[in-house]
Amino acid sequence: MNSFDHALLLGAVACAATLVRLLRRRDGIGRGYSLVVGALLIFDLLAMGSLGESSRVLGVVALALVTVTVVLPWVLEHSSRWAFARGHLIWVGRLSSLRASLMPGSGLARQLPILEGLAVLDREGVDAALTHFRKLAEQAEDGPEAAVIHEQIVSMLFHGQRWDEGIAHYERRFHAGYAALRPSLALGLLRAYGEAGRLETAAGLLRELEDGPVGADPSTAELLGQARLTFLAYAGAVDPVGEIVARARFADLGLTAATAELFKGIAQARAGEPREAVETLTNVEALAGPRDRRVREAARSLLERARAVLPELPGEPAASGAALDSRAVELAPELSGYVDLVAARLRRWLSLAPAVHPHQRPLVTYTVMFALCLVYGVHVLRGGGGIGLLELGALSEDLSRGTGMGTGLGAGRGTGSAWARVFTSAWIHVDLVALLLDLYALWLAGQIVERMLGSARMAMVTLVAAVAGIAASVVALPLLWSRGLEGVAIVAPTGGNLMALGAITAALWLLLPSRTPALASRSRRNLIVTLALLLVANVVTNLPGLPGLSGAGIGFAPIALVVTIGFASAITLAMPLEPPRWLAIVQELNVGAALLATGVAAVIVIQADPETYLVDHRAQRCELDGVVVHTPSSLMPLTEPPDLPYELPLVEGLVDALELRDGSLVQLAVHRQTAISGDDGDRAPALFGLVDGLAGEVSATALGPLPEPFVELVAADPAGRWGGSDLWRNGERVGRVIEKRIEGPAGERVTLMLIASPATAIEHAPRVYAAIMREAELAVSAGEDPSPRVQCVVE
Q1: 3-state secondary structure string across 687-746
Q2: Cα 182 from chain centroid (whole Å)
Q3: Which letter, b or e, does each residue of 542-580 get, where b requires 16 or more Cβ atoms within 10 Å of its Cβ?
Q4: DSSP H helical segments within 50-162, as ranges?
Q5: What is the pLDDT of residues 619-651, one digit of tens each?
Q6: pTM above threshold 0.90
């Protein structure tokens, strides 16, 4: 698969992911855009399946359309959210307008006047924005569109801290209970009722939220928690609000530290503690981040009012404006009881919810995902096939046989990188589909694991677990070989899937009801089903993918899989969710050691020469239809060739599994035929005699320039035993066959063939393939009919 095919596949994945999201929740986007995305997905798949020059044209058109109508809108959506969070409302309007123009059928153009109103707010202030929205309200007909506009008017009044006007407009335009269906509006209304001193009305609104759809929907648990905290702050409940701030549980409610400190200051001011409120509100400025502009403004306003009742503060001039009432808010007995009930409910919810770590973003998860993508990108750009994988750090049984890896480090050229590859192979993927599945698994599982267990344990269940699994599969080789268990004595060349496997395992354990009792059963079930499917996909994409392939699998190492799952399970279950400090330090030291070892291993691998080592250490002896060859273990017997979508058919013989993993086809096969006197001149490739009908599908021409090792072999052979052909289909070179004739029994011609598709695959390891063919010879029992025709043993 070349870079263009990778781009087409990524385009198809982007369309599929967007279509799934649109079908699940449209977010105000019209169905017409869903049809457009579905049509683009089909078009992209057709471009992937087409052949010839037309496929390039279709592919370019498909990529351009996907980029403009799917990828760019996604980028603009996230950019506008980023701008909105930081208060850059003018840019929100510009980015959203451009996004709407790129999404035909989405209906987003209807939202542009509202977004323009936000830009007016940022540019000219609240009064200008109110004028803009009131004009829109006059032009709009009654219905959902008018309701949205009036919601914006209420929000603008709240933004300007004109609480009474905002409440009056809401109560004049909306029926009782409307805000309970609009959580974001309800949060602003709760604060407005609190500022206006209407705590009874605020309590009624909170009851409606708790008893309505918001209270029954697990996805709105954070919003409901914010509503409870807002109500408690304006009720002067200092203890529960202060407890949330002290225990840093505000992150569980989706709040920043500055917002939580503001609520604490509000609670102290409402409880008649202006001096404490001043001290708390003073801290808001230092805690505020880029997204806390309005929090800073609210804190400054309240701080001025609190200082106005404390003129005796040294160095603090009396503030102008309405002073804060220094008396504690008085609650009726029934309202006081409800405050206590709300505080108890909030405490209970936080006690059931696992503590979320202070770092909001799962940085280790994103770092691992980025590193896996980076390594895959390097491999795609470098190429090199199977040897390219080994140069990148992939592991091979050939690099562990004879090196003492089962008992210690070996000596000799090429073996110095053997143990280093245990660390480097854990980062390698060779298949884009498998990489994308693992990236999604890491992203989904990382949201759970890293937020609950912290960054160190996320690194333990990914990197350290993968390295432990690969190391176990290597150490177990001598024991498995001695017991005749070659079927499980497998070392997978690449182990990038093991990181995702460890993360999925840890996440599934954390989803047990005993670990996350506050999680709603429906959400738990959805997560478990999704992660279980990803676990199956992780295993399936690494199972031997070639029917008829004898011996070890192409990429499935049972020992590595079992150890990775066991290690990740132990790290998740054997330690408490909040480990003691000494244990956390031990985890961090282990992760640091693993990262240091990985860095050292990468330096060692870069200096290694795996091709030279494989030329000198080919421990596998294979007999192909009476011809003996000595090969690396990556060439595996193929007894029942399946029909796979390669340019050339698979034939009975040996297939290079490393090349197969990289998307190329390199085979060794033998063709026997009765020798005919006088046919030593030009003749058809032996492959045509081995595969019926192939001569009618492809044409053969003389070999083009050969890699240097083969040039030397041909030049040193005066007998003319070497030959071959380049194979062509529809004007494109699709493969190459290099042949060596071996003297067979009387009256029989034996030809050993090296078959490659694409033709450049031979150039990935030319010295290895040349050495194999140079030393090939007729078996002692060649005069008999060997059975089986393809068999290999490790010497």
Answers
A1: HHHHCCCHHHCCEEECCCCCCHHHHHHHHCCCCCCEEEEEEEECCEEEEEEEEEEEECCC
A2: 33
A3: bebbbeebebbbbbbbbbbbebbbebbbebbeebeeebe
A4: 53-66, 72-85, 89-101, 112-124, 126-139, 144-159
A5: 788 888 888 999 988 888 888 787 777 788 888
A6: no
